[in-house]
Design goal:
- This protein is mainly alpha-helical.
- The protein has one domain.
- 77% of the residues lie in helices and 0% in strands.
- It contains twelve helices and no strands.
Length: 252
């Protein structure tokens, strides 16, 4: 595999995960795959954007309105990329009876009833939990949950088999190297410690347990993971992170 500079890999991660076209045209597959090392760092940048918006508009709006605004910003900046994967996954699991049928439904670009239900419940959970964080003035939590959501995708890709032979997800599964995973893990752990100390480490541990269980569930259902499953993991672990941080905020 050719050596790729840190700057190009980081730019590829930003371009893939956000609406900002920082990478050059014609990104190499190796460049895109190894960019997963910086997924948690991109999550931190997204969290910093949310924090700055919450700080700027906190005095003007109620926590509920501010939470809706932050959720809208996060969805727009990330192009709803992982939400699309979540909807496809819910449709496949809800409508498919076996591996082949589930994968066929997940490939369909049309959204079905189960996909709508998954989207509504996930977005509603995020909205309510972000509102509680803002109300409790736990602004540092806005930095952590996007970070851990993107780290979970790296973990899932590294440790579980990919079941499709092509697609963007296959590029990540093929070209993600062990050292990229450890870089991503180190970055996520450092951010967890700097923002929440031992509580941040505990939150990351819960995300790890949840992602591990999620990966094994999909191995049983469809034999492994897909790009849609990666997106689903990112969205659901954001909810898990938010719920954990809210519980810590309330002293539970």
């Amino acid at each position: 595999m050719r050596e790729i500079s840190v700057g190009r890999r980081f730019a590829a991660a930003i371009s893939f995960l956000t609406i900002f076209p920082t990478a050059r045209e014609g990104v190499w597959k190796e460049e895109l795959g190894s960019s997963m090392a910086f997924f948690p760092l991109v999550g931190l940048l997204l969290g910093a954007l949310l924090w700055s918006c919450a700080y700027t508009f906190g005095a003007a709006f109620t926590p509920q309105v501010n939470a809706l605004f932050l959720l809208s910003v996060l969805t727009i900046v990330t192009r709803g990329l992982h939400l699309d994967g979540l909807a496809d996954t819910f449709d496949g699991l809800g409508g498919g009876r076996d591996k082949g049928e589930i994968l066929k439904i997940m490939r369909d670009s049309h959204i079905g009833t189960f996909g709508v239900i998954g989207l509504v419940l996930t977005l509603m959970a995020k909205y309510l939990l972000i509102g509680q964080l803002i109300e409790g003035e736990s602004s540092l939590s806005l930095l952590l949950f996007p970070t851990l959501g993107r780290w979970s995708m790296v973990y899932l890709t590294h440790f579980f088999p990919y079941v499709r032979g092509r697609g963007t997800g296959a590029v990540f599964a093929t070209y993600l190297r062990p050292r990229d995973f450890w870089w991503a893990t180190g970055i996520a752990l450092l951010i967890s410690i700097l923002t929440h100390g031992l509580a941040g480490v505990g939150t990351m541990a819960l995300v790890w347990i949840f992602t591990y269980a999620l990966g094994h569930y999909f191995v049983r259902r469809i034999g492994g993971i897909t790009g849609d499953v990666m997106g689903t993991a990112g969205e659901l672990t954001e909810v898990v992170s938010l719920a954990t941080l809210v519980a810590l905020l309330r002293g539970l």
